[in-house]
Design a protein that fits this description.
Layout lengths: L3 E9 L7 H19 L3 E8 L4 H10 L3 H18 L6 E4 L3 H16 L3 E11 L4 E3 L17 E10 L5 H10 L4 E2 L1 H12 L6 E2 L1 E2 L15 E2 L1 H6 L1 H4 L9 H6 L4 E5 L3 H14 L8 E4 L2 E2 L15 H8 L1 H10 L7 E2 L2 H31 L11 H22 L3 H22 L1 H4 L6 H22 L4 H11 L36
Parallel strand pairs: 1-2, 1-11, 2-3, 7-12, 11-12, 13-14
Antiparallel strand pairs: 4-5, 4-6, 6-8, 9-10
Helix pairs in contact: 2-3, 6-10, 11-12, 12-13, 13-15, 13-17, 14-15, 14-17, 15-17, 17-18
Bound molecules: 5'-O-[(L-methionyl)-sulphamoyl]adenosine.
5'-O-[(L-methionyl)-sulphamoyl]adenosine binds next to strand 1, helix 1, helix 7 and strand 11.
Length: 510
């Protein structure tokens, strides 16, 4: 049986205003999920929406609809965006799903009955837009440290989760599982900023708003964000039924991919909740950086961004995916700009990849009627190219296993650049003038076509439509992962389809 791989994105707050930064987590998760599938893993890739809370309640009120009507309409926006980006999720969870709500109630009750949740009084600073509580020392000049907006002092009866009880076990878990939090800098941040000063018990219910999952044994309270949101990763699999097939098969998660600002929730609160539930902990939480614009936050109020679908319409889905995956070293912050997107598309996709494919296929048509031949008239110069192409699978696998997605892609690009250089060095157009060099010419074209096939298969996780277009262009049936372990599996005597333009160079008018 294939090894399983359970990967999740965070569940998104429903929004009509998603920007390219929101797409970042999901595009990367999609590339990782697709790569694992390519490698033969049995993948479960989950995303979804986080639909409760005071903010949504307010927005619905302003729009004159019920919160449920509001979210029902707006989550279509997320689904539509993910479809236009080619996101291959296996499951889309909504926290308003009945199955999730019932499961959360059971989890809450179980934790209460076993003494991990108790009733107390909450007093503290609260940021409504971020739905976050802050202590006085965390607030910056009386403002939310995340978004800089005013926080308000609130005091209400609330249930608390005994986070403090799990502190020692959590530190022990970190020690025993050095790869649990990546990049490493984020682990140090958790230890130094949150764990060492001492974990405080966590407020897990609210009475000041209604739009949440009711605590069934105390219906004045709704379950407050963390127990509701984080448990999505197990309720989707059928928990609390531990015998549910999906749960047995996929839990614990292999990778929670999250933005850096929610690493704390996923590496402190979530593991402690799971310990309290006596469940195994996820293997890894990766906290990626933010895409910024002009080094600042991408923000609706600043009006500094376009709907990502505008970029997709203008440049194609794979240009947008490629940019998100290739531009920024995974883990760090990076800048997004339309100019950089255009420049990346032109250099890597139009010049390096697109040109290589179209000129190789055009030459094959011109000199051999599009028929693939390999008379094996080899020369020294071929060895270098063939060795690079043959090694590529292993190198890309290594990079992907460390989640160095941008480096994995660059390795493929490097090989494509070598292919272009091989054309320049072997000058097929000159050989074509000499009848005695026909077999050498055919061999060169075979080497190129086979290199393109192998690269196209490796690119399928990152730019799936383009990969598909290339493989269709080659008219090959050798498209599976196991056909790229050795060089030379492209079939002989097949007829290539006519060359096509994969990416037009984008001209920028001033
Ligand atoms: N609902 C919570 C997550 C709960 S998970 C149990 C949430 N939602 S969110 O919609 O605000 O964010 C979803 C994801 O988008 C997060 O991983 C977040 O980091 C990511 N991004 C939002 N803006 C971003 C950038 N500008 N750049 C990169 N990713 C960012 O948080």
């Amino acid at each position: 049986m294939n090894k399983k791989f359970y990967i999740t994105t965070p569940i998104y707050y429903p929004s009509a205003n998603f920007h390219i930064g929101h797409c970042y987590t999901t595009i990367i998760a999609d590339a990782i999920a697709r790569f694992k599938r390519l490698q033969g893993f049995d993948v479960f890739f989950q995303t979804g929406t986080d639909e409760h809370g005071e903010k949504i309640e307010k927005k619905a009120k302003e729009s004159g609809v019920t919160p449920k009507e509001y979210v029902d309409k707006i989550i279509e926006n997320a689904k539509d965006l993910w479809a236009s980006l080619g996101i291959s999720y296996d499951y889309f969870i909504r926290t308003t799903d009945e199955k999730h709500e019932k499961a959360v109630q059971k989890i809450f009750k179980k934790l209460y009955e076993q003494g991990d949740i108790y009733k107390g009084e909450y007093k503290g600073l609260y940021c409504v837009p971020c739905e976050s509580f802050w202590t006085e020392s965390q607030a910056v000049d009386g403002k939310c440290p995340d978004c800089g907006r005013e926080v308000k002092m609130v005091s209400e009866e609330a249930y608390f989760f005994k986070l403090s009880k799990y502190q020692d076990r959590l530190v022990k878990f970190y020690d025993e599982n050095p790869d649990f939090i990546l990049p490493l800098s984020r682990k140090n941040e958790m230890l130094n900023n949150f764990i060492k000063p001492g974990l405080e018990d966590l407020c897990v219910s609210r009475t000041s708003f209604k739009w949440g999952i009711p605590v069934d044994f105390d219906p004045n309270h709704v379950v407050y964000v963390w127990i509701d949101a984080l448990s999505n990763y197990i309720t989707s699999l059928g928990y609390p039924n531990e015998d549910a097939e999906l749960f047995k098969k996929y839990w614990p998660a292999d990778l929670h991919l999250v933005g850096k600002e929610i690493v704390r929730f996923h590496t402190i609160i979530w593991p402690c909740m799971l310990m309290a539930l006596n469940l195994p902990l996820p293997h890894q939480v990766f906290g990626h950086g933010w895409l910024k614009i002009n080094d600042g936050k991408i923000s609706k109020s600043l009006g500094n961004y376009k709907d990502p679908r505008e970029y997709i319409d203008a440049y194609g889905v794979d240009a947008v995916r490629y940019y998100a995956l290739r531009e920024v070293p995974f883990g760090s912050d990076g800048n997004f700009s339309e100019e950089a997107l255009i420049s990346r598309t032109n250099t890597d996709l139009a010049n390096t990849l697109g040109n290589l494919v179209s000129r190789t296929i055009s030459m094959s048509h011109k000199y051999f009627d599009g028929i693939v031949l390999n008379p094996k008239v080899e020369e020294e110069i071929d060895n270098n190219l063939i060795a690079s192409v043959t090694n590529l699978k292993k190198i890309v696998e290594e990079k992907m296993s460390e989640l160095k997605v941008n480096e994995a892609i660059d390795e493929i690009m490097e090989v494509l650049r070598k292919c272009n250089k091989y054309i320049d060095d072997t000058t097929p157009w000159a050989l074509a003038k000499d009848e005695t060099m026909k077999d050498r010419l055919a061999t060169i074209l075979y080497n190129l076509l086979e290199s393109i096939r192998i690269c196209a298969i490796l690119l399928s996780s990152f730019i799936p439509s383009t990969s598909n277009a290339i493989l269709t262009n080659l008219n090959t049936s050798r498209v599976s992962y196991d056909t790229i372990t050795t060089f030379g599996n492209l079939e002989l005597n097949i007829k290539l389809n006519p060359a096509q333009v994969l990416f037009k160079r984008i001209e920028v008018s001033n």
